[in-house]
Amino acid sequence: MREPTFERVFVKWKRNFVAELENGVIVRAYFTDGVVEEKVETETAEILKERLTDYFSAKPVDFSEFRVVYPTRFAERVLREVRKIPYGAVETYSSLAGRLSTSPRAVGVALRMNLVPVIVPCHRVVAKGGLGGFSSGVEVKKLLLEMESKVSQETL
DNA sequence: GTTTAGCTGCACT
DNA sequence: AGTGCAGCTAAAC
């Protein structure tokens, strides 16, 4: 058995962002005000750092090449669908629910379980009559959406 | 126009 | 089997 590798990517932003990898698979990501030490060894982690740096410098980035963990079978179904939402676009809980033949409430439950925000763009899912929730705080959700909509405006 | 009751599907105990 | 949600809708104030 190969030795398990653990790596960590750190990107500075309004709220700093951390992504952690095991064996080249992203297992966790979170926002923090603190600073954590980076540990980048593989090419996968290097590319991820590049993409994240671009993303937080307000560039449109696609994260679909990266492997991530899904907490449950159901969450995987929902989150895979969420990953298809393109940069700058938003979709509502209910339209996702319709496509997956489930309820908007259940979609919310699945999104709450997402371990890797930004890389799985759960912030692009909003409520029909408002913003909806966000596990790392709705303020961050608002910032991400504002940045993305601004960037996709400029890219016209 | 705003608030509220009831429904929902799934995970966790 | 029962509880609690990152929502929605229609019915009531």
**In percent, how much strand structure appears in the residues?**
15-25%
User: What string, H for helix and E for strand, traces the elements in order?
Assistant: EEEHHEHHEH
Note poorly predicted spans.
Answer: none
Reported CATH architecture of the largest domain: Orthogonal Bundle
CATH topology of the largest domain: Arc Repressor Mutant, subunit A
How many domains? The number is: 2
End-to-end gap: 50 Å
Which strands sit side by side, in order, in the main sheet? Answer: 1-2-3
Q: What's the helix count?
A: 5
CATH superfamily caption of the largest domain: Winged helix-like DNA-binding domain superfamily/Winged helix DNA-binding domain
Largest sheet: 3 strands, antiparallel
Helix content: 25-40%
Q: From the helix content, strand content and strand pairing, which structural class follows?
A: alpha+beta
- Give the overall pLDDT as a whole number: 94
> Which shape, going by the Cα principal axes?
globular
Protein name: O-6-methylguanine DNA methyltransferase
Keywords: DNA damage, DNA repair, Methyltransferase, Transferase
Domain Methylated-DNA-[protein]-cysteine S-methyltransferase DNA binding: 74-149
Catalytic activity: a 4-O-methyl-thymidine in DNA + L-cysteinyl-[protein] = a thymidine in DNA + S-methyl-L-cysteinyl-[protein]; a 6-O-methyl-2'-deoxyguanosine in DNA + L-cysteinyl-[protein] = S-methyl-L-cysteinyl-[protein] + a 2'-deoxyguanosine in DNA
Layout of strands and helices, then pairs:
Layout (H helix, E strand, L loop, with lengths): L5 E6 L4 E7 L2 E8 L10 H14 L16 H10 L8 E2 H8 L3 H9 L12 E2 L11 H17 L2
The structure holds a DNA duplex (13 and 13 nucleotides).
Keywords: DNA damage, DNA repair, Methyltransferase, Transferase
Pfam families: DNA_binding_1
Organism: Geoglobus ahangari
